[in-house]
Write a structure and sequence with these properties.
CATH topology: Aminopeptidase
Shape: globular
Distance between the termini: 10 Å
Radius of gyration: 16 Å
Order of helices and strands: EEHHHEEEHEHEEH
Number of strands: 8
CATH class: Alpha Beta
Helix content: 25-40%
Length: 182
């Protein structure tokens, strides 16, 4: 478990699966920028049974409050087979839990964990055009806007732009992003 000020990041338990499955498939909670992924429940459970949603290329952690209430999920995945980087994605399930700093703290905690535990040089976040909340998260954690991948993301029937944000190990080590408590 990775402990922060307001939230914790923890591994997913089998007892979390019913609520997580429902949240994962709730189009309203996913919002307009996190595409709906329809996964049959047996496939969802099979993936969990295989690796607990944790492998060398992809790791998912729950974002929970101090009472272990499920707030959201954060995902870390290998960005490319040729790069020394990972990509983060995240979302807070309940609209009433948004705009409280949970996603920002989750990203800070996971960034610190990754750079402390793994030999990686770069963490990136790809943000669909218009997702101002995720832009604020990336900027609060001191990710650098590198540019725009034009028409790189198919969402809601459109090819939209993706904003590319990154944080390098040397920037993190210089204290640009470090959380006060990990």
């Amino acid at each position: 478990m990775i402990i922060g000020h307001k939230i914790q990041l923890r591994l997913i338990k089998e007892s979390d699966l019913p609520k997580l499955y429902d949240a994962w498939h709730d189009a309203e909670s996913r919002g307009p920028y996190y595409p709906l992924a329809l996964v049959p429940e047996p496939v969802f459970r099979e993936e969990f049974a295989k690796n607990g949603f944790w492998s060398s290329d992809s790791q998912r952690l729950l974002i929970v409050d101090d009472k272990d209430n499920m707030l959201g999920i954060i995902h870390c995945a290998k960005a490319s087979t040729l790069s020394d980087s990972v990509e983060l994605s995240y979302f807070i399930f309940d609209h009433s839990a948004r705009k409280k700093g949970y996603a920002t703290e989750a990203v800070k905690l996971l960034v610190d964990f990754i750079f402390n535990q793994r030999r990686l040089n770069r963490i990136q976040i790809l943000i669909p055009a218009g997702n101002d909340a995720s832009v604020r998260v990336a900027e609060k954690v001191h990710f650098t806007h590198e540019g725009i991948a034009r028409g790189a993301f198919y969402l809601n029937g459109e090819d939209i732009d993706l904003h590319i944000y990154s944080l390098l190990r040397k920037e993190w080590a210089a204290g640009k992003s470090r959380s006060k408590k990990t």
